[in-house]
Design goal:
The chain is mainly α and 255 residues long. It has 10 helices and 3 strands; from the N terminus they run βββαααααααααα. 67% of the residues lie in helices and 7% in strands. It comes from Arcella intermedia.
């Protein structure tokens, strides 16, 4: 991740006093906010330490090659190890915020902008995804929500992703009616996941963040939206990236 710098506070954040992020040039590729100065200091240090480590790491001739851990992932692991109280909780947290997730946001943003014709809707979605993902991460990190219930919602998302992968792989071999029927099933799975998350998180989220969560699911989980994206040849490359990430995510196990 050459060219990245840790920035705090962020210039364009409304409540920027305890905001922080990773910036490449003028582009902020990861943003977060903390409740106070101590938490902010820990995050900035963890990110900077991870960035410094990435700059200095070099393979040796005799060292076995291993999969490189992402920058944000390493910082998150450093933070999580201090507060998480269960092995399962740590495994969940490790999948929530990583470089792949950050990179994926740009792809999703382009898809939404193209499908809806609205740059504002795409920007709102990106902002909402970032804030809700970070909020869920902090709640899991602090062990403030039931991991088992969270995983039940996650299971529904996985089922939806698995079905979307099958739809994508078979879209040229089945009828449009079958595709629409399957996409309705995807919509139903994601709606059920949303309902579980809303029940789980309502006491921990502000009314604004509850609306953010609903906006995310109503946008990305809408069957018509998914159908339009599947049929748009201009989004073929972006769709392939998203499907690839979905397929990889369904293969991650927490036990």
């Amino acid at each position: 991740m050459e060219g990245l710098t840790v920035v705090s506070p962020l210039k364009n954040e409304k409540n920027k006093k305890y905001s922080f992020g990773l910036q490449k040039g003028e582009e902020v590729i990861f943003a977060g906010a903390c409740a106070g100065a101590n938490e902010l200091e820990q995050w900035v240090k963890a990110l900077q330490d991870s960035l410094d480590k990435e700059k200095t790491e070099a393979p040796t001739a005799n060292k076995k090659k291993t999969k490189k851990t992402g920058l944000v992932q390493r910082a998150k692991n450093n933070m999580a190890s201090k507060t998480a109280s269960s092995v399962l909780g740590k495994k969940v947290m490790k999948s929530i915020v990583n470089e792949e997730t950050v990179a994926l946001l740009g792809t999703i943003k382009k898809i939404v902008k193209t499908e809806s014709g609205s740059a504002k809707k795409a920007e709102d979605l990106e902002k909402n995804l970032t804030k809700i993902t970070f909020k869920c991460y902090k709640l899991l990190e602090a062990n403030e929500i039931d991991v088992a219930v969270f995983l039940s919602a996650d299971r529904l998302v996985r089922d939806a992703f698995e079905l979307l992968v099958r739809i994508y792989n078979g879209k040229d071999r089945v009828s449009q009616d079958k595709i629409k029927e399957a996409l309705k099933k995807v919509e139903s799975l994601l709606k059920s996941s949303e309902e579980i998350l809303l029940q789980l998180l309502t006491t921990n989220l502000s009314s604004k963040n509850v609306l953010r969560l609903s906006f995310i699911f109503s946008t990305l989980g809408d069957a018509k939206f998914l159908e339009n994206v599947l049929e748009d040849p201009s989004l073929a490359q972006e769709l392939e990236k998203v499907i690839s990430v979905m397929e990889a995510y369904t293969q991650v196990q927490y036990h």
